[in-house]
Amino acid sequence: MAEELTFDIPVGAGVGTRANADGEPVTPKDAATVILLRDGADGVEVFLQHRVKGMPFAGGMTVFPGGGVDSRDVDASVSWAGPEPAWWAERFGCDESLARALVCAAVRETFEESGVLLASTGDTVVTDTTPYHDAREKLVSRELSLAAFLEANGLTLRADLLRPWANWVTPPQEPRRYDTCFFVAVLPEGQQADSATSEAVGSGWQRPEEAIADAKEGRRMLMPPTWITLAELGEFESAATAQAVEREISKIMPTLVREGDKIRVVLDPA
């Protein structure tokens, strides 16, 4: 049975009522989002970014780092440690090639947008990303692929630092649609998440319940997947506990019905 949720959103949040010009749903693009966690003084904190208002998708929204899969993310030459693509394919219900691309996109986008690098030199997880500043800019501009970046710097992608969390699909009435796999990761020791991305006007760490309270008071805007994920994360006592939980992943495509200044969210399998 579908689960129905209702919550207030500010008028103009930009979801739920836009139709495509020809009436035909757009095919969703594959994407990856990473929920970065750490332990704060009062409990679990999550890294959130406030997107630039002019962005074509989720402009003005508060989101987790992430983005679309690049065609080069499927490169099998990537040095890899942790669960193999077959393991991820089983969790996300896709083929191994896409599973590899999703994990690579998750690592790449997290580094591009927050400066957090889920990689290691040998068995030692990176603690200082300063030496990779120039490479980060080239990844953003697509001058450099993830595989080339890792190889040039003797780095290994650490799939074991990620865990699967959810799979959300943009509703069919939206002009831009994504089939997004959500991952969770704990901030590696010694690393710092930053705001050095052109896609956001600000970012920072916040307790999940505080972010939801800000949304209810109109101080920030959250899309349903972000809101629901934050509500789920608020139930955990530590970042490690949240990352360790075993979750059944199925595609979720919400039905959004605007009623005045509210949106009714019905969650159905996609």
UniProtKB/TrEMBL annotation:
InterPro entries: NUDIX_hydrolase-like_dom_sf, NUDIX_hydrolase_dom, NUDT19
Keyword match Kinase: no
CDD domains linked to this entry: NUDIX_AcylCoAdiphos_Nudt19
Assigned keywords, A-Z: Hydrolase, Magnesium, Manganese, Metal-binding
A GO molecular-function annotation: hydrolase activity, acting on acid anhydrides, in phosphorus-containing anhydrides
Lineage: superkingdom: Bacteria
Matches recorded under Gene3D superfamilies: Nucleoside Triphosphate Pyrophosphohydrolase
Cofactor(s) required, per the database record: Mn(2+); Mg(2+)
Domain Nudix hydrolase: 28-236
UniProt entry tagged with the keyword Magnesium: yes
Name under which the protein is recorded: Nudix hydrolase domain-containing protein
Organism in which the protein naturally occurs: Amycolatopsis decaplanina DSM 44594
